[in-house]
Amino acid sequence: MSRPSPSAIRIKGRPLRAWPALVLLLLVVLVGTGCVLWFMVEASRNERLAIRQRLADAYRGHLELVQTRVAEAWKQQSAALEEATPSAAEFARIVGENRADSVICLGADGRAVYPRQIAFPTPALARGRTDEAAQSLQSQVRALAHSGEAEAAIRLVVERFSEPLFDRAQDQEGRIIAASAELFALELMRSPTHPQFGRLVDRLAQRLNRYADSVMLSSQRRFLMRELQRLSRAMSFPTETAESLAGRYLEATLGFPRTTSLEPGPLPDVWQMASPTRRAIALFTTAGLRDRLQAMVASQPLPAGVTVSALAPGAEPPGGEDALLIAAPAGTSFPGWRFALTLDDRSLFQTAADRRVSTYLWTGTLMVFVMLALAVVIALAFSRQVRLTELKNDLVATVSHELKTPLTSMRALVDTLLESERIEEVTAREYLQLIAQENSRLSRLIDNFLTFSRLDRNKYAFNFHPIAPASVVDQAVTAAGERCRAPGCKLEVRTAPDLPSIHGDFDALVTALLNLLDNAIKYSGQTRHITLTTRASHRAVQFSVEDNGIGLSPSQQRKVFRRFYQADERLSRSAEGCGLGLSIVQQIATAHGGIVTVSSELQRGSTFTIEIPATPEPAGA
Fold first, then answer.
1. Strands (E), 33-99
2. Which long-range CB contacts under 8 A does 1-7 form with residues at least 24 apart?
3. Are strands 324-329 and 306-311 parallel, antiparallel or unpaired?
4. What are the pLDDT digits (tens) for 99-108?
5. Do residues 439 and 39 touch, judged by C-beta distance below 8 A?
6. According to the model, what pLDDT value does residue 14 have?
7. Terminus-to-terminus CA distance in the chain, angstroms?
8. Model-level pTM?
9. What CA–CA distance (Å, rounded) separates 179 from 168?
10. Which of 20, 31, 100, 376 has the maximal Cβ count within 10 Å?
């Protein structure tokens, strides 16, 4: 009969595996841990959202106040467009006051008055004398230049076209003749080092920057601005960007808007808005409109550490969406635009959130550790219970086997005697001796069980008194009796002279030695050579039992003193005993303040040694 595996116990003869319960326990722990971790993550996220929401509620009123005041400021700024008159001077005023990035001034007929790309051709009969004179001078300049007299042409432009008489003179295409002649003269100079270059550049720049009473076409103005900047790179014009934007707008649009609300224009990143009188079309770039809104926001009082940003449609707040605390529409005047409120120091939010989140994390971590600790305790307790049940099953199986074997032998011998009609004395004596041996074997087994039970429950009453070690050896050899004198068995007793006495329980020590001798006899094969040695060693007495049996491996030596452990499972049923003998020896040695050790090699025998402290000698002896 084989021993049940450590992972199984038997109930009503059927093995019950322990690993399904352990797997179920592990599954419960993993599921519980997963739930706790999920709760921690969700709680942390919800706590951050809750803190963000509380901060948003605290600052929402400030953002609403910003919306209201920006809307009022925008209405005041837009009111300037209602006063616009269709002229170049009004274009310059609106752009100069930064009311818009550019503007289209319309006449009563809905046509662009300024910027104006082209002029309607003027018939020769309708041209004035000044225009004809200016055109004649222009022709003389070109003739001098073509004949190689560039200096004469330059001198004529400098002297004659400086007269105010020619400031408004136009050619048939509506271009200012004086401005065109001055640019032609600058090109003839070919170098900024010319004595008249700076004078002529300043005069032409004044013409381009003068919008009051100006009849210059915007197309000519833009062209002259670009050319003058090419010739003199230090030159700049405050209205150049607005002129360029208006020109591109007029080329792209198919019609002017009729609505007074801000809306996307025909150009990318350009917004348009008509004045209530429909006499002006204000143009805004996305960057320019954002800067204007940002300036309006900056003029409003805000709590310290708070920033409100104007966001174009599709734009992200500074720092990304994670930095956003509140976002609200900028109002009906700015479709698609938003105001975003962010905290300058995000650590204010992070500190409050991290403090609460850390509480959840520590609580969840503690719960996980508690669950793991409880799972380990339960697993150990369950494993211990399985082990105890296994030991119990081993005990029942071993006891049943060990009791059944001698009882069966004695019953067979008795039945044989009873069934014999005539019993010879020799046969009867032989049978009775066998019955006596089996009875002795049964008695030793029961004594071992009783001794182990008392030792295990601390109920064994030791009777300590001084003992001569030799008397213990003699009694143990006598008790071993015929087993040590059987054929093929040789017992050698070596007792050193002048051994010190020991303080102990005589019967218990005899039992310990007898168990070692029994163990040597059982595991020594057919030819047994057993040596019982008693000697003194360092204020102690050692009882050693050496055999030539099967021996023990290193791993078996570490487990040999465990209860119910038997080194060779193949012999567990053929050799008597149930694995309690060495456990009893160890408990007896420990009760006497001593130790028991083993030294062994496989197939070369074992040596078990009990070491008991010697009785201290009296002082002065």
1. none
2. 1/397, 1/401, 1/573, 2/569, 3/394, 3/397, 3/569, 3/572, 4/390, 4/393, 4/394, 6/386, 6/387, 6/390, 7/386
3. unpaired
4. 899 998 888 8
5. no
6. 44
7. 59
8. 0.53
9. 10
10. 100
DSSP letter at 198? Answer: H
Give residues with Cβ within 8 angstroms of 246, minimum separation 6.
91, 102, 103, 104, 115, 218, 283
371-376 CB contacts, 8 Å cutoff, 24+ apart: 371/29, 371/32, 371/33, 371/36, 372/29, 372/33, 375/25, 375/26, 375/28, 375/29
What is the predicted pLDDT for the residue at 471? 92
Q: What is the DSSP letter of 569?
A: G
The maximal CA–CA distance of the chain, rounded, in angstroms, is 177
Backbone φ and ψ for 10, nearest 5 degrees, come out as: -115, 135
State pLDDT tens for residues 478-509.
887 767 777 778 888 999 998 999 999 888 89
Over the chain, what is the mean pLDDT?
80
pLDDT tens sequence across 287-344:
999 998 888 888 777 777 778 888 888 888 877 766 667 778 888 888 888 888 877 7
Contact 614, 500 (CB under 8 A): yes
CA angle 54, 56, 61 (to 5 degrees): 115
Give the C-alpha separation, 438 to 172, whole Å. 147
Query: Sheet holding 263-264: strands in order across?
Result: 112-114, 102-106, 280-285, 270-274, 263-264
Question: Which residues are CB-neighbours of 167 under 8 A, at least 6 positions away?
Answer: 176, 178, 207
Please give the pLDDT value at position 11: 42
Cis peptide preceding 257, ω within 30 of 0: no
Would you kindly state where each structural domain of the chain is located, as residue ranges?
111-255, 442-613
Q: How far apart are CA 464 and CA 312, in angstroms?
A: 100
pLDDT at residue number 224? 92
Instruction: For 422-463, write each residue's pLDDT tens digit.
Output: 777 777 777 787 777 677 667 766 766 666 666 665 656 778
Q: Which residues does 209 contact at the CB level (< 8 Å), separation at least 6?
A: 237, 238, 239
Q: CA 620, CA 528: separation in Å to the nearest integer?
A: 46
Sign of dihedral through CA atoms 262, 265, 269, 274? negative
Q: Is residue 373 very low, low, confident or very high in pLDDT (cuts 50, 70, 90)? A: confident
Q: What residues contact residue 304 under an 8 Å CB cut-off, 6+ apart? A: none
Q: DSSP code of 317?
A: P
The rounded distance, in Å, linking the Cα atoms of 573 and 411 is: 20
| Structure letter (DSSP) for residue 570 | G
Give me the CATH topology for the region 442-613. Answer: Heat Shock Protein 90 (3.30.565)
| Residue type at position 540 | A
Which residue type occupies 190? Answer: R
Structure tokens at 253: 């649009």
499: how many CB neighbours lie within 10 A of its CB?
A: 17
Give pLDDT tens digits for 359-368.
767 777 787 7
Q: Is the pLDDT of residue 48 over 80?
A: no
Q: Are the C-beta atoms of 598 and 610 separated by less than 8 Å?
A: no
Q: What is the pLDDT of residue 578?
A: 64
Residue 144 has which token pair?
Answer: 């001098």
Amino acid making up residue 388: L
Which residues make Cβ contacts (< 8 Å) with residue 380, sequence separation at least 6?
A: none
Output the CA–CA distances (angstroms, integers) from residue 360 to 31, 46, 54, 261, 373, in the order listed: 19, 11, 19, 51, 20
Name residue 106's beta-bridge partners: 112
